[in-house]
Amino acid sequence: MEEKRDIDGKVYEVESSSDFAAVPDAFQRLWTPHRYVYIENGQPPGEDVCPFCIAPTLDDETALIVARGTHAYVLLNLFPYNSGHLLVCPYRHVSTYDLATPEEVAEIASLTQEAMRVLTATSGAHGFNIGMNQGRIAGAGIAEHLHQHVVPRWAQDSNFFPIIAGTKAIPRLLGEVRAEVAAAWSK
Length: 187
Known about the structure:
single chain; 187 residues; alpha+beta; HIT family, subunit A; 5-stranded antiparallel beta sheet; two-stranded antiparallel ribbon; 7 strands
């Protein structure tokens, strides 16, 4: 076992699965203990206000909003996995998909489709990871407000910076991506 420190100074241990009794399988595993802070803490301590409720009250550039609908809107993720990582959120503060109205569900789906088309056109995305983490137990960082992730992927987008240097390489600035995606969105 090797001891490491994360960027917040917390100590964690690095372990190899070969140290445990098990039957090997065909899966590779990427252990990311630094991501546990999202599961453990969710919204940052002292944050009493929902960022997805605040965003629509701000101007689009400040809030990183790329499109607004009647029941939902689309914004860039402030902590993206990749350039162009979008979030589709209902305006209404609702925690899970089953609590959304049929109108919210339909618009979230429609905005997700348009997000895929726009990201394909603006960034040449080869594929997408799309999903919702429902509740804190499922890994939702902001569990109190429903949001769907739309993460563009490219054939050559994997790298080992997050593993060996604790750094995620994001090749484009948020403001630059927001302007490009917002301009390409159908009006």
